[in-house]
Amino acid sequence: MRRTGTRLLSLFFLASFLIITGCGEPPQGDASSDDQLVMARFMDSTTVAKVTELKARFDQGLQDYGGQERALSYLYQQHALRLRGHFLEEEPFHSLYPFDGRFQLGDHASLIREIPFFSDACGFRDANGKEVNYYCPAMNPEYFAYLESLGTTNEIIQNFANDYQQYKTISPAVRQQMLLSAPDVFNFASEDEQLFYALMHTWVNEEMQARLSLTRNQNPPAAPASGGETGGTQQ
Description:
Layout (H helix, E strand, L loop, with lengths): L1 H23 L20 H22 L5 H17 L20 H4 L5 E8 L5 E7 L3 H10 L4 H13 L4 H14 L5 H25 L7 E2 L11
């Protein structure tokens, strides 16, 4: 009887140890599956599928930098930390993915055309009247309702949604907040927040690449064709 009691006690401590250590490990998987995306409450299944496909292509770039074996939540967090570090050290953070231009929406134009909250109506015009358009957020009511839902727990997303609906541009304040505060504000275990983070950086990258293509080998700086200093949607 005594030996049986000792064995049961040992099993109890072993089980307790496994539960505690298991709970303490970082999750190996990533965010929720597609049908659990908050976006699915606001967008139709075709749109969700197309956006998920686009995000997967962005994710691949993060994995190329950070390692295929790493969880995406870790890669997003590290990307945000690197951007903040470069920004604070006044290093060229635009050389990091995707601002290095490696991920451009023009390479995925057929996919982009099927996503209703993208627009190609943003652009710049040079002194000679030459214009270059780029992809930016469209004023899609469902998309901004979705962002406002996410914004209840993420102030950067909320500020983006408020500013863009008012000014039709990604404001300098939101850009700076994204660079400085994203590692602390974002829940990168959430696929919805990963998605916003990816799209925000992609849209900023689109603007940067458009500005570069227009001003390359030209002395006069590019003036906005529409929407404010950083461009904007006409929709």
